[in-house]
User: Which sequence fits this backbone?
């Protein structure tokens, strides 16, 4: 699979993510088309310059982030009827979700995984502590074919939803990268005002033991 197709990128770029932001039972992605204003943000710094061979297509089935205690199944997400990006369902056993119009983890391009910060009356979401990640922290995606794709965090950014950097999140890149997205910042009546975005680069691959 190649990086995001033009159609998929256009659709995604029009859907600035509002992933798992509120305490409501039916959170949705925002359909705002507003682009970042003012001075462009610099690209995330790279945690490692080591070249790792890209993987073939294999759907992610699990995600582990040791630094923040995340070990979650991964479900597939598509587009809602209004063209916005789906978010994982609000359940007691919260899970992360891979946006299926993005590359799979380890393929060339930006693979996008979303998670809730809160899940209504159920409490904390799977990405509640995402903003605590730091450069160099490990993220391991378990793939359907038995491969583990390990990423190193390059940068963690908190951005206003109105200024969601769609091009940086969904735009084509020439190597395997990962984006983890949730909400953060001040809470309002309808959720949170910001998004937390983790940028990471493939650093190693291996075969899983189970």
Assistant:
């Amino acid at each position: 699979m190649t990086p995001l197709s033009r159609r998929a990128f256009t659709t995604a770029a029009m859907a600035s993510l509002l992933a798992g932001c509120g305490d409501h039972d039916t959170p949705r992605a925002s359909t705002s088309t507003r682009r970042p204003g003012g001075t462009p943000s610099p690209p995330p710094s790279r945690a490692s310059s080591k070249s790792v061979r890209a993987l073939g297509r294999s759907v992610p089935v699990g995600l582990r982030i040791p630094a923040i205690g995340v070990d979650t199944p991964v479900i597939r997400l598509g587009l809602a009827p209004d063209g916005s990006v789906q978010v994982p369902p609000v359940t007691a056993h919260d899970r992360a979700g891979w946006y299926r119009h993005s590359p799979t983890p380890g393929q060339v391009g930006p693979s996008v995984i979303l998670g809730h910060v809160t899940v209504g009356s159920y409490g904390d979401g799977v990405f509640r502590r995402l903003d605590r990640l730091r450069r160099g922290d490990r993220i391991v995606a378990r793939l359907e074919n038995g491969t583990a794709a390990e990423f190193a965090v390059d940068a963690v950014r908190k951005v206003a939803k109105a200024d969601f950097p769609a091009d940086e999140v969904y735009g084509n890149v020439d190597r395997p990268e990962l984006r983890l997205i949730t909400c953060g910042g001040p809470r309002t009546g309808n959720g949170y005002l910001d998004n937390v975005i983790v940028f990471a680069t493939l650093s190693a691959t291996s075969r899983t033991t189970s």
Observations:
- Residues 43 and 168 are 8 Å apart (CA to CA).
